[in-house]
Design brief:
Blueprint: H1 2-20, H2 27-42, H3 46-67, H4 77-116, H5 119-125, H6 130-166, H7 172-180, H8 186-211, H9 217-246
Helix pairs in contact: 1-6, 2-6, 3-4, 3-6, 4-6, 4-7, 4-8, 4-9, 6-8, 8-9
Length: 247
Amino acid sequence: MFISKGIAAFGRYLDFLGKVFSVPERMRMFGKQYVKEMAQLGVDSIAIVLLISFFIGAVICIQIKLNIQSPWMPSFVTGYTTREIMLLEFASSIMCLILAGKVGSNIASELGTMRVTQQIDALEIMGVNSASYLVLPKIAGLMTMIPFLVIFSIAAGFGGAYASAYAGIITPDELTTGMLYDFNQWFVWMSIIKSLFFAFIISSVSAYFGYNVEGGSFNVGKASTNAVVSSSMLILFADIFLTQLLS
């Protein structure tokens, strides 16, 4: 029963994507919506990304220095490990899990409200492909902004690590040595590539739940919760396969 429901939901999701990825009827209108969504979904998320990344970078550095490093380890281990954690997992996977809660719930609740207030039905009556008009700019906008959010997250995490260094946890020179030791530029690109897939999952899955809301305002909240939970689970599953594929 559970498997059959899952297959049916996946089929409806693919049908929904087929409607979304049709050619926009008016490119000028699509351009305006695209810029709006970049600001709403991407630019408005910069503050929370910087704040969380900064403190996580500081905490990782402190925890590694106090609990893992020993006299038998080189002094650069703290900086090296902090860099690898930020590049390989936090700046892409964990950050996108955070954005699934902020951005995903925003998308689902916005589209769900439009559905229950019959605004989407009005667009359909006017002959507008509502799925493409409403959802495609959100997907494109978030996927455009996500590489910048990844870079901001990495920079803020490193800034937090250096803040803890200047607080006396570790010397800045030791941290810098670890940050530069055996640096692999591919890890940055891997984080960006993974985040593009995660951004598509967040935007499309959240839009699917919001667009297909049935009932009243109570169901909008339920759809928002389902969108965040489903997006987070899919991000975790995708992270396993993408890490194996890109490593």
